[in-house]
C-alpha cells in the first residue's frame, strides 16, 4: 500500500503551524494530529542546502525507506520528515531506528 503524501502548500503550512517539532541527528520531523475523519499522510523534504539534486533525491529515498520500516504513516497524524546533513551518509535502517525513537516521544 503506497503512503499518502502531503502535497499542497496549505497542508504543509497547517502542519507547521499546529505541529510539534522533534529532532534527531539523522532526521527532523514535524507532526500534527489530523482532523476527525482525515487521512494520515507523510511528506519527505530535502533542502537545497544539502547538495545537488542527486544528493537530495538519495536523502528522500532513504527517508521513504526508513518511514516504511518504521511503520509510517502514523495513524491519526500528518508528518513531515526532513533530511539533515547526516542523512546523506546514513542507511535507511539507521534512519528507521531514529524515527522509531522519535515516534515513541510523540505517543
Characterise the protein shown here:
The chain has 107 residues and is α+β, with helices and mostly antiparallel strands. 39% of the residues lie in helices and 21% in strands. It is built from 3 helices and 4 strands. The chain has helices at 9-18, 53-69, 92-106; strands at residues 20-23, 27-33, 41-45, 77-83. Strands 1-2-4-3 form a 4-stranded mixed sheet, sandwiched between helices. Strand 3 (41-45), helix 2 and strand 4 (77-83) form a beta-alpha-beta unit. The longest helix has 17 residues, at 53-69.
Topology:
Layout: H1 9-18, E1 20-23, E2 27-33, E3 41-45, H2 53-69, E4 77-83, H3 92-106
Parallel strand pairs: 3-4
Antiparallel strand pairs: 1-2, 2-4
Helix pairs in contact: 2-3
Query: What Rg do the Cα atoms give?
Result: 13 Å
Would you tell me the structural class of the helices and strands?
A: alpha+beta
Mean pLDDT: 93
Number of helices: 3
Secondary-structure element series: HEEEHEH
Low-confidence stretches: none
The N- and C-terminal alpha carbons lie at a distance of 24 Å
- Helix proportion of residues, in percent? 25-40%
Instruction: Give the strand tally.
Output: 4
Strand content: 15-25%
Largest beta sheet: strand ordering: 1-2-4-3
Largest sheet, in brief, is: 4 strands, mixed
Principal-axis shape equals globular
